[in-house]
Amino acid sequence: MSAALPEYYFRVRENGAFVFRVDTENRQRRIDMDQIAVVNTRNGEIRPHGDRQLSARDMEAIETWMADRIATLARRDIDDIHRAVDHLNLTAHWVQSKATDEQLDEVSDALLMAMHDLRSVLVRKKADQLMKSRKD
Predict the structure, then answer these.
(1) Residues 62 and 126 in one domain
(2) Tens digit of pLDDT for each residue in 71-106?
(3) How far, in Å, CA of 130 to CA of 126, rounded?
(4) Strand pairing of 16-23 and 32-40?
(5) Which domain holds residue 62?
């Protein structure tokens, strides 16, 4: 473990984090984490914990973390989509070369519905983009 601990710790949750101030300057020389805020990355809300007043330094650290977290999640989203494309290609190869009739019966309807839904959304979004670009 590194000797220098961060001043803040962010316990990630699905839509944000709990924010803690890290304290090692105590008589027992142990690590204390004092919750100071709750952060919601979906709506940008920062709520102080209890009756706390957040300092400018607290707010700056939280806002920096939020910006970094939102960027990380955006990168993960696009990476997940690239992986989905790979999985579709692997699935096509599996269907063509390895799948048994029983396996195809098990997955075909669900795959066809999901692909139809995805295709419909992609076509609609692409058409919206084309219409928008023609107006501009």
Answers:
(1) no
(2) 999 999 999 999 999 999 999 999 999 999 999 999
(3) 6
(4) antiparallel
(5) 1-82
